Amino acid sequence: MKQLLDDIQRRLAAATLPDGSPLFAHVDVDWGQVDFCEGPPPVKFPCALIDLQSAEFSNLGQRAQVGRVAVQIRVVDMILGRTSAGAPEAQREKAARVFDLLREAHRLLHGWTGTPALYGRLSRKAVARARRRDGLHEYTLTFEAAVTDSSAQPQYVLANLTPVVTA
Q1: What CATH number was assigned to the domain covering residues 2-164?
Q2: pTM for the structure as a whole
Q3: 91 Cβ contact partners less than 8 Å away, ≥ 6 residues apart
Q4: Tens-digit pLDDT profile for residues 12-38
Q5: Which pLDDT tens digit goes with each residue over 53-70?
């Protein structure tokens, strides 16, 4: 699962806009950077914060498992300025940038896999808005992927088929 989160982070961080600028100014693991802050959050906007939401596993046998992992990507942008119908078009467009970010994150990740031997293709499952009091515009994308975990399988020595105990 660590590799899945790492691959998503690298993919989003490498994404650029048509003018060559980064799609996101900050891409990181979500450790609460935009929550419970006194003062400005320690991120640049727009940002994408990635975290594991949940995972459910079933046994394959010989201590291997297959699971469905849900990954959340919080897309957060700061809105500065008016957003009403009477605001200048450029200002309204910048305020609605979060929807372009959501579309691009979906385009980049839906159907994609970075390490096929460890997890299957990502599939978008949900988009949810978070209501905030601080003026940040936040949506959470949830993706799912199938993962295979054989890390608990015994490793056998070929000569005598005795399990090798690993700590």
Answers
A1: 3.30.2000.10
A2: 0.86
A3: 81, 82, 83
A4: 999 998 889 999 999 999 999 998 777
A5: 999 999 988 888 999 999
Backbone angles phi, psi at 3, to 5 degrees: -65, -40
Domain ranges of the chain: 2-164
Checking 19-27 for CB contacts under 8 A at 24+ apart, the result is 23/101, 23/104, 24/48, 24/101
Alpha-carbon distances of 127 from 93, 106, 114, rounded to whole Å = 21, 10, 22
Q: What secondary structure does DSSP assign to 94-105, as a single string?
A: HHTHHHHHHHHH
User: Are 117 and 28 a contacting pair, CB within 8 Å?
Assistant: no
Q: Tokens for 92?
A: 């309204």
Query: Are the beta carbons of 67 and 51 closer than 8 angstroms?
Result: no
